[in-house]
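quick one: magnesium ion bound model?
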Amino acid sequence: MFERYISPIGINDGSRGSLSEVWIDKEANLIKKLYKPNGVTIRNRLPFHRNMIEITKLYNNELYWTTKLKSKYLVETYEYGALTDEEGFYILQEWPGPDLLYYANEDLPLIFPNLADQLEEMFSLFKENNMYKLNCAKCNLTGSNGNLKCFDFKYSVVREAKYTPVELRSITHWLSKIDKSLIPRLSKYVLL
Ligand SMILES: Nc1ncnc2c1ncn2[C@@H]1O[C@H](COP(=O)(O)OP(=O)(O)OP(=O)(O)O)[C@@H](O)[C@H]1O
Ligand SMILES: [Mg+2]
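yep, here:
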């Protein structure tokens, strides 16, 4: 049964809830994200992005990169399209489990053995595809059976020097909270 998801995590740590209205079916491991101007986001409020031109751009960007990077390091996207009864779009994806904010830091190495190696491979995939994700944080990472997966590509861009500091900040500001050694290990895939 799909149930609407509201983040239990404080805004300083969690995602902003900038666009999608999120519905999760935990038994079926499915998540349905609605991109629509009057959605109720995971912060229990209206989206930041409410203009259909902007929403369409973000939706197309999400699909562009998830298709291009399709691999074991991304959650699977099963279905997507325009909503039929109102303005907006839907994306039906794999929900392997909660995002990484759900776990205590000290438990992460038990739940995701080789977490650092998996993150390195993920960043190597981004590099091969000449992409900066720009939001690689625990709130956009998930996984199950020890396998790490990322999602949320709506802000991703083709690599350009002007974005390098932003991509590096994801590592120094967010991912370093998992383990400081990630800073040098991941930064080398980001520098142009
Ligand atoms: N495939 C997924 N697997 C597990 N959890 C997910 C998945 N997709 C979304 N979520 C959960 O829903 C939250 C919001 O989804 P998402 O990051 O795609 O978009 P958003 O609401 O537009 O917000 P923001 O811009 O703040 O990231 C995630 O932080 C995560 O908790
Ligand atoms: Mg997000």
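The chain has two domains: 3-94, 101-187.
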